[in-house]
UniProtKB/TrEMBL annotation:
Name of the molecule in the record: MerR family transcriptional regulator
Highest taxon in the source lineage: Bacteria
Keyword Repeat part of the UniProt annotation: no
Residue ranges of domain HTH merR-type in the record: 10-79, 128-197
One family name in Pfam for this protein: MerR_1
C-alpha cells in the first residue's frame, strides 16, 4: 500500500475501535495524549487512516505485550510520528526529483548544472577501480571517462598518488549515462542536468535515511531501557467513561 493510501482518513471511530479491539473512549484518550492523530471530515467527525490503525496496534503491543506505561508509549509514539513525517518528506522529495529527472529526459532541457548535495559515506562510494578497469567494465574508452569527469557527470576519487579511482556508484552512473546517450538519445547537456539531479537525489536519500535510522535506533534503545524498568504499581485502564 502506498504512503498516500495509508494516510487517507477513512474509518470512523467505531470502526477503528473494532479493528484494533479497543473501546472508542480509549482512542479518544490516546488522541488527547498525542499518541494518534486522526483526521477530521468536513463535519469534524474523527476519521482514522491505515497508519492510525498501525499505530493503535503498536500501542496495544507496547502496553499489553511489553508492559510499557503510557508515559513510555507517549515518547515512543512521538518518535514514531517524527519518523513518519521524515519518511513522508523523504518520499515526497524522491518523487519530486524523479519527476524532474523524467522531465529532463523527455524535454532534453539544457540548464547549467549546479552543485549537488553530498552523500553520506556508503560502501558503494568506496573508490576501488583504476580508470582502465572502470572503462572495461562499462565498455567505454578511458578518454570518454575523462571527458565525463570534466563535465562533472561522474566524480571519481583519487588515491594518495592522485590516481583516479572509481567506485561501484561511479560504474552505475557511467552505465546510466550510456543508457541516456545511446538508448534515449539525450545530449550531454541534458545528461549533465540529469546527473546533477541524480547526485541530489542520492544525497537526499542518504541524509533522510540516516535520520530515519537514527530515530529507529533511538526508539529501540528507549524500548530496551523501558523494559528494564520495574513494572508500575497500577496500570491505567484501557477504557473510560463515555
Amino acid at each position: 500500500m502506498s504512503t498516500d493510501a495509508k494516510q487517507r482518513p477513512v474509518y470512523v471511530i467505531s470502526v477503528a475501535a473494532e479493528l484494533v479491539d479497543m473501546h472508542p473512549q480509549t482512542l479518544r484518550l490516546y488522541e488527547r495524549k498525542g499518541l494518534i492523530r486522526p483526521g477530521r471530515s468536513s463535519g469534524k467527525t474523527r476519521l482514522y487512516s491505515e497508519r492510525d490503525i498501525d499505530h493503535l496496534r503498536e500501542i496495544r503491543r507496547l502496553t499489553q505485550e511489553l508492559g510499557v506505561n503510557l508515559a513510555g508509549v507517549e515518547e515512543v509514539m512521538r518518535l514514531q510520528h517524527e519518523l513518519d513525517d521524515i519518511q513522508d518528506d523523504f518520499e515526497a522529495e524522491i518523487e519530486r526529483l524523479e519527476d524532474e529527472i523524467r522531465s529532463r529526459v523527455q524535454n532534453q532541457a539544457l540548464p547549467s548544472s549546479g552543485e549537488a548535495s553530498g552523500a553520506a559515506p556508503d560502501p558503494k562510494d568506496r573508490p576501488v577501480y583504476v580508470i582502465s578497469i572502470a572503462a572495461e567494465l562499462v565498455d567505454m574508452h578511458p578518454q570518454t571517462l575523462r571527458l565525463y569527469e570534466r563535465k562533472n557527470l561522474i566524480r571519481p576519487g583519487r588515491s594518495s598518488g592522485k590516481t583516479r579511482l572509481y567506485s561501484e556508484r561511479d560504474i552505475e552512473h557511467l552505465r546510466e549515462i550510456r543508457r541516456f546517450t545511446q538508448e534515449l538519445g539525450v545530449n550531454l547537456a541534458g545528461v549533465e542536468e540529469i546527473m546533477r539531479l541524480r547526485f541530489e537525489l542520492e544525497g537526499t536519500r542518504s541524509k533522510l535515511e540516516g535520520r530515519i535510522s537514527s530515530i529507529q535506533q533511538d526508539i529501540q534503545s528507549r524500548m530496551t531501557a523501558w523494559r528494564e524498568l520495574p513494572a508500575p504499581a497500577a496500570s491505567e485502564p484501557e477504557s473510560g467513561e463515555e
